[in-house]
Structures are given as structure tokens and as C-alpha cells.
Amino acid sequence: MSASLSGLLKPWTPRVFLVRWTRYNPYYLEPEVRKEAYSRPETALSAEEKELQELKETRPIKAAPNSVTSSVFHDPVISKFINMMMKNGEKFLVRGIMADTLELLKRKQVEKYHKAPPEKKEEIECNPYVIFHQAMENCKPVVGLASIQKGGKYYQVPIPLKDSRRRYLAMKWMITECRENKHRRTHMPDKLSQELLAAWMMEGNVIKKKFELHKMAEANRAFAHYRWW
């Protein structure tokens, strides 16, 4: 038993197996970063979960990756937006810009809330995270164009987009709009908060880009059959 255990704990080198390179051998357990998993009572656990909990007391556990966190303030969509906006690895700078943007959104909406009449205060959204997510949803296109060659000619064929591609285009358009069409005296958080508010209300240049892409796809609908041929 001790010999087999020592063999499992040795550094493991994958050779002909179709797995990714890892410094941990199969004896190591996966980490659990969800706080809810540790706050559940023992009576609410199933037999498999109890067995896994007992194994964690004796077997080593892999280190959690840097991208994983148990913070209640973690937002995966905002993290992706920060990574897309980052240049030259200056993530601390971009995080500050994003925090200032959310603060400006909050300030603008709270100011609007206090100036509004009592009957319209309930309609004003003051949560900047809700505004950001709704703005991103409004900017996501439904269809796109793909260049397909048929008979020596290239056609712009309309195709439905995956969720990851839709999210990428929405974030890319938002970042490009804020960088290229920004006044030199306007700071990035100011411009980004303006564009997010405009997109939240279905206005602004990013929404126009989305509608222009939809119009081009509608105009090229005659080439839609080239998608399968």
C-alpha cells in the first residue's frame, strides 16, 4: 500500500495520453472555491459529497488558478471586459478605469434619481452592474457576415453568431468607440460611462453599428444558401 501511494505522489509526466500538461498527478483533488460548499450543513450532503469531503482531509488538493476567486464582487463579464481593454499587461490600470466608470454611472443615476419627481423615482436604475450588463446585452448582434468563396468570387453570407462571438463583438465595439471617438480632454471613464448609459437606453454609436450589421445581413440574405453549399 505504501509503495503504491508513494508512486502516486511522484511527479507525473503525461507521455502518450491525450491530456494537457500538468504538474499534479491524478492523486490530487480539484479545488473547491465556492463559499456555499463550505457553509452547507453535514446533514444536507449526499453520500458522494460526504465521501469527497473525507478524501479532502487526507489527499492533497491542487492550487486554484489565478483567474478563480470566491469574492462576492467578482463578475466574469466585467473580468472579460477588463482583459479586452487591457494593453501591455497593465491590468491594475484598467481595473481602476473600470471602477471609476462604475462609480460615475452610480453618481449620474443617483443625481438623476434625486432630481426626478416622486412618481418616476422607481423607474430609475441606480445599480451600475445592472446598467453594464443590460448595455452589453443591447449591443450584442444576432447575425453576422462571413466571407465565403464560391466560383472564384467571395460573398458576404449572413450567419447566426455564437454567444461568445456576440459578446466579443459587443465588447470590441464599445472599447473601440471609446478609444477612437473620444475627445482628447475627455478621460476614459467619462467616455465609457457615457457610452454605457447610451447603450442601456438603446442609443449611441455602438447600437448603430449593431443595426448596420443587421441591415447588411438582411441585404445579403440572397446568399444565405451558400452557408451550406
Architecture blueprint of SSEs:
Blueprint: H1 2-9, H2 35-39, H3 47-56, H4 76-85, H5 91-115, H6 128-139, E1 143-150, E2 153-160, H7 163-180, H8 188-200, H9 205-219
Antiparallel strand pairs: 1-2
Helix pairs in contact: 4-5, 5-6, 5-8, 6-7, 6-8, 7-8, 7-9
Description:
The protein is mainly alpha-helical and 229 residues long. It contains nine helices and two strands, in the order H-H-H-H-H-H-E-E-H-H-H. The protein has a two-stranded antiparallel ribbon with strand order 1-2. A hairpin with a 2-residue loop joins strand 1 and strand 2 (153-160). The longest helix is centred in the middle third of the chain and has 25 residues, at 91-115.
Task: State the assembly state of the protein chains.
Answer: single chain
The major β-sheet equals: 2 strands, antiparallel
Binned, the helix content reads 40-55%
* Helix segment tally: 9
- The low-confidence parts are 1-6, 13-18
How many strands in all? 2
Look at the helices and sheets and give the structural class: mainly alpha
Radius of gyration, CA atoms, in whole angstroms: 25 Å
Order of helices and strands: HHHHHHEEHHH
> Proportion of β residues?
5-15%
Distance between the termini: 60 Å
Overall mean confidence score, pLDDT = 87
